[in-house]
């Protein structure tokens, strides 16, 4: 069986954000764990110094932009104790990792061709949703809509 591995270089050949999203979309289901009870394995890895340094290099490479699209800066801020800390940038593996990848410390873990920066919303849409998740809900503006006590 031939596995179609996705790469960062191939992804970047897609010009638009939407095309890149569709290239990566997994059509997964909510509640499906890739690691199950062994989830602690990948969580331990994501806390390692090696991962954090790699993560920082990827954020610089992608300029902190969603799907590395220069016109999609990630602005989802983490709030701690009521204060904004920094944008929440997720490093997404283009080809999902397995328990064996983590246990054997495979090349897939730290391969720059296997990762990209994404926002939390994009990450959820890649795994579980469709592009409807990505479109912000805009409400039509009306006179007085900036005053919460006026309807």
How would you describe what is shown here?
- With about 150 residues, this protein is an alpha+beta fold.
- It has one domain (about 25-135).
- It contains 6 helices and 4 strands; from the N terminus they run ααααβββαβα.
- It has helices at about 10, 15-25, 40-45, 50-60, 100-105, 120-130; strands at about 75-80, 85, 90-95, 115-120.
- The strands form 2 sheets. The chain has a two-stranded antiparallel ribbon with strand order 1-2. It has a two-stranded antiparallel ribbon with strand order 3-4.
- β1 (about 75-80) and β2 form a beta hairpin.
- The longest helix is centred in the middle third of the chain and has 13 residues, at about 50-60.
- The chain is globular.
- The chain starts with 7 loop residues before the first helix and ends in a 23-residue tail after the last helix.
- The model has no long low-confidence stretch (mean pLDDT about 80).
């Amino acid at each position: 069986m031939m596995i179609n591995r996705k790469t960062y270089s191939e992804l970047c050949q897609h010009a638009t954000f939407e095309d890149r999203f569709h290239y990566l979309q997994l059509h997964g289901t909510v509640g499906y764990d890739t690691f199950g009870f062994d989830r602690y394995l990948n969580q331990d890895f994501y806390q390692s110094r090696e991962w954090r340094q790699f993560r920082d290099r990827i954020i610089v490479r992608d300029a902190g932009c969603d799907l590395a699209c220069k016109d999609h800066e990630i602005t989802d801020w983490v709030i701690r104790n009521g204060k904004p800390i920094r944008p929440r940038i997720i490093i997404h593996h283009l080809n999902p990792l397995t328990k064996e990848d983590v246990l054997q410390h495979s090349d897939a873990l730290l391969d720059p061709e296997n990762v990209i920066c994404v926002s939390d919303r994009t990450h959820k849409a890649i795994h579980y949703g469709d592009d409807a998740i990505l479109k912000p809900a805009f409400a039509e503006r009306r006179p007085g809509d900036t005053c919460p006590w006026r309807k």
